[in-house]
Design a protein that fits this description.
Layout (H helix, E strand, L loop, with lengths): L6 H18 L4 H14 L8 H4 L2 H19 L2 H12 L3 H16 L4 H19 L4 H13 L9 H10 L8 E2 L2 E2 L1 H19 L19 H17 L10 H19 L6 H8 L2 H19 L2 H13 L3 H16 L4 H19 L4 H14 L8 H12 L6 H27 L1
Antiparallel strand pairs: 1-2
Helix pairs in contact: 1-2, 2-14, 4-7, 4-11, 4-12, 5-7, 6-7, 6-8, 6-10, 7-8, 7-19, 8-19, 8-20, 9-17, 9-18, 10-20, 11-12, 15-16, 15-17, 16-18, 17-18, 18-20
């Protein structure tokens, strides 16, 4: 075990080495994350007693439950039928991809980003199979679009919930806050600009689309389960955190999954569904997220993120625009390689301390933090849980996506969104 005096340096080096390996060795990400987390524990940077609390069980339960329900949704043939409908209404591949991405973004403004990706991706994969094209660009576009609009409403992402709690914001405050335009409209304009970027990226994909065979739907009950999941997730977001379990969203998703299994067993007499569903759950992605949660807890314990936050105050002086710019673009850089939930949770009290020291209202700094951290997670494959989930689906389809392939789409998309949000927040709230 290391002496505490060396925790900071060792944690920083181990953290940077870990994420470099995650970017380079995409097929072994889960093993790398868990191995690095084990080193944090062995070295004493992350105490054993903090290992289980470090993991966000709400996210993992929600992810596993949604994966199970989505498997039943796929088997019902509804995604294939939706694919037929979308193909019939789109002139070419370019519009299919952009339409799916925009649709996913609108849903994720009100539903967790990971859940959105897990619901929309099966439709996209089915469309790509029917058109005999690679699903990789389409799933990437869906993932980054979902992550972008998570900042639009109070219920869209965990980071929004964290900010709403810090500022005591209601659901409607994200639309209009203190008499000014709120984050919803800022994010939606950023999403519109980013959609134009997607049209530019996919401008050469003009292959006509056609679906001659119409897929028959065998069971609508899984579709009802997904709708029920969405409604309950939104309803749960209005309940104060102190009045509900920390794993409420996870319990909702797992509950609907169990109901789906019971329906198949009791009414369809399909006893093999349990084995098929459990086999289909992406344990690789769940393990990767668990490892990342522990790594972030380790560097938080070592004071890495907190020290970087304090650096802002020292180098910005009394220049509000400079500190705002630093917060936005540093958040973009950090969120490109770090899950933005623990980062935002750590930075909110830091930003809250910066504002009174500089004698300014904190709103512009808080909003800048959310814009940079949430939109910035789109740059790399591991910057957001939605991206990890999307790549997990592609991996199961036999596509190992390299970081360079992902970033050809994500970088221009993200920069367009962040620049738009960065300018609008400052112009409206400075």
């Amino acid at each position: 075990m290391l002496p505490e005096s060396s925790f900071f340096t060792v944690a920083l080096i181990l953290f940077l080495a870990t994420f470099a390996c995650l970017l380079i060795f995409s097929k072994a990400r889960a093993y790398i994350a868990l191995g690095s987390a084990a080193l944090f524990v062995i070295l004493g940077i992350l105490p054993v007693r903090q290992v289980l609390p470090a993991v966000d069980w709400n996210v993992l339960l929600m992810l596993a439950g949604t994966m199970g329900t989505v498997f039943l949704f796929i088997e019902s043939k509804v995604p294939a039928r939706l694919a037929d409908i979308i193909i019939d209404r789109m002139p070419n591949v370019k519009w299919v991809v952009v339409t799916l991405a925009v649709f996913a973004g609108l849903i994720s403004a009100f539903v967790d980003n990971v859940a959105t990706v897990l619901m929309i991706a099966p439709v996209a994969v089915m469309i790509c199979k029917k058109l005999k094209i690679s699903p990789v660009p389409t799933i990437i576009a869906i993932s980054i679009s979902s992550n972008l609009q998570g900042a639009a409403t109070l219920v869209g992402d965990t980071t929004s919930i964290l900010l709403g709690s810090a500022l005591d914001m209601t659901f409607l405050d994200f639309f209009f806050y203190k008499g000014r335009i709120g984050l919803f409209f800022i994010v939606e304009l950023a999403a519109a600009i980013s959609a134009c970027v997607l049209l530019l990226i996919f401008r050469k994909q003009k292959q006509p689309v056609d679906s001659t065979d119409k897929t028959p739907v065998t069971n609508y009950f899984p579709s009802a389960l997904l709708v029920g999941t969405l409604v309950c997730l939104i309803a749960a977001s209005f309940i104060p955190s102190a009045s509900k379990p920390a794993i409420t969203n996870g319990l909702i998703c797992m509950g609907f999954f169990v109901v789906g299994l019971a329906h198949q067993i009791i009414f369809k007499k399909d006893f093999s569904v349990v084995k098929r569903t459990l086999k289909d759950i992406d344990y690789f992605t769940l393990a990767l997220l668990a490892g990342l949660f522990m790594i972030i807890a380790g560097i938080q314990n070592a004071g890495v993120i907190e020290e970087i936050g304090k650096l802002f105050v020292r180098i910005s002086g009394d220049n509000v625009f400079l500190i705002y710019t630093l917060i936005v673009w540093f958040s973009v850089a950090v969120s490109a390689i770090v899950d933005n939930i623990p980062y935002v949770a750590t930075m909110i009290p830091v930003v809250g301390a910066i504002a009174p020291q500089m004698g300014v209202a904190p709103t512009v700094l808080y909003f800048g933090l959310l814009v940079g951290a949430t939109l910035g997670g789109n740059i790399t494959p591991i910057g957001a849980s939605a991206n990890i989930a999307g790549l997990g689906i592609l991996r199961k389809e036999g596509h190992a996506v390299k970081a360079g392939t992902f970033m050809k789409i994500s970088v221009p998309f993200t920069l367009a969104a962040v620049v738009t949000g960065y300018l609008l927040v400052w112009l409206i709230w400075a």
